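Researcher: Next sequence.
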Amino acid sequence: MARTQAVSTSVRELVLTSFRSYGSLLMQPDHRPVVLAGPNGAGKTNLLEAISLLAPGRGLRRAELKDLIHGQVPGNGDHRTTPKTPKTMWAISALIDNCGEQIRVGTGIEEKQTGYRRIVRINGEAAGGPNILGQYVRAVWLTPAMDRLFVEGAGLRRRFLDRLVLSIDPDHAARVAAYERAMRDRQQLLKEDTNDADWLSALEATMVEKGVAIAAARLDLVSRLRATFDTGPDGAFPRVDVALDGKLETALSERPAVDVEGHFGTALAASRSQDARAGRALHGPHRCDLVVHHSATGKPARTCSTGEQKALLIAIVLAHARALKAQDMAKTPILLLDEVVAHLDETRRAALFDEISELECQAWLTGTDRALFAPFGARAQHFTVADGRVFSVHA
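Model: Next structure:
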């Protein structure tokens, strides 16, 4: 494989085919942060979404596969399309550099009788499902839709939490998927009242195994974040207190995992009737919540101002990246920051650019006002996005 400058994970080539607003696109950025400036609707977020789909999961918009096809009417987001029947399936291909080791990663869809199916290729060869992408690409994102992360339901915070965990443990997505599948199957059996005790016990055993592992991985992440905030210098972004609110997580922090597994299994078996009436499982890591406080003021994040909530979110993402860099440069994630700088004052904008430069990570940032990115200078590579095309701009 070719070797390049030894920095953290970066996209060195991005090829889009029939994706969102792009009929076709070739970008060849270097290892530096990428600034994408252009008017609303130009397709900036679509580029971030494409990169997010090179990591496990459904991408930063969690869109339906068919809605990503060029020419489809979008459900949301900033791209211009016309309603027509697409003839070409979308595909994304990228040359990923992990500290000098390069690999070609691709994903796209094919049409089956039952609908669309997502496919993955590694170095041109068919691979497993999207979860395998976690071995090659780690990405964390902030989007305008996440501005209400601290005031919406716990599900949004769990997805954010699990995205951070994935940068540490690529197998986390597979465990979450297996847990949720077993939980759905168990609930269906309870709804049907089949009294299949053996099958229920088997599903609950899977929930116990995967659920305790999920909780342990989340606790490990929170421990890393706390250590980073405790030892890091004061800066423009606030220190953050982070914790997990969940019975399984609390038990795991106090007792050996084997004891927690036993108690969790007993609780699931004992709550079958109750879960059947409730229509959902009342115990498990799917009930966990991420609790965040502003360290200096002690205020819960949900009661902070909109600006402070944005600063707290950015602080968590930066602390996460610092923690991973301290452990292993190859694990530092690609940061996808959609319309972030417009909500920051001049001091925090400059601090964000400085932090990204110090991390030596490849961040992709979007905005409508190019002037806001001027302090980045030549530390970043600058592009203009307009009408499904991307142009390089000299900083």
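Model: The chain has two domains: 1-138+332-395, 149-327. The mean pLDDT is 91.
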